[in-house]
Amino acid sequence: MRRSLLIPLLHLPQLPPVMPFSLSSRSPKILIVKSDILYAGVLQAATQRVFPTATFRREVTLKNTLAAVAEEPVDLLITGVSLPDGDTLDLLAEPLPGRGFGSALVVTGRREHRIFAVLRGLAIQGVFDPNDEGLDQFEKALEVIRSGGRYWSTSVLERLHVHSEPSYAMERLLSPTEQLVLAVIGDGSDDHEAGDRLNLRPSTIHSVRRDLHRKLGVRHRGELVRLAAQQGYVRFTAGGVQRPGFARLLAACGKNFTSQPARAALPIVPARKFA
Description:
- This protein is an alpha/beta fold.
- It contains 12 helices and 11 strands.
- The strands form 3 sheets. It has a 7-stranded mixed β-sheet with strand order 1-9-8-7-4-2-3, sandwiched between helices. A two-stranded antiparallel sheet has the order 5-6. Strands 10-11 form a two-stranded antiparallel ribbon.
- The radius of gyration is 19 Å and the shape is elongated.
């Protein structure tokens, strides 16, 4: 296992500021959000060793998570990125006042460019990579956060640095409109389908698609779909197609993409609540 770096991160500029939250209360409220119930239990056991008097709640869906923090705000949110019915990036991007949670630690092994581009701009306490570090380091991350610090796994910092290089910076290469259209046509939608979803003319979609082909150096629709998936603009899951970080923009277009059907769906395990 490699040692992680603690904030301040002198070589990684433009991390957003976070409000200092105290986790030193006698009984902090902690919400763990992971689609894998067994792994959520492992995270809870490790977290309980750091916060022995905490009260816990666990959720496995985005819908239940939003309802939980609206019903009862928590002191610490420990969450992954992908859930069966959507991703948590828009939740994590909520304005600090009144967002339903104080501190937030993202636990993810995702590698896509889009995920890192979004995580870099979030006001969160850190990102922990379970593929690179073990539970002992996870507990150390929690101890850092408990004391008011921030913790980012070394592997995450390295990828953030790589993805900030000009050759990887698709958020600088593509305009916001181009990124949004890429997230929609990245599932293979044609110009008419994408135009209907975004309330744009098919000719507009066709023009943006042509610019995407030119900027990204692809010739065929299949290449564009593959690139969109590789870079994290779309994600194909058993529960449907997800578009990380685009839920709000798509909702503003009048379309709900969080429950887009997939060819085959796995059963969703009901959320469980723990005292």
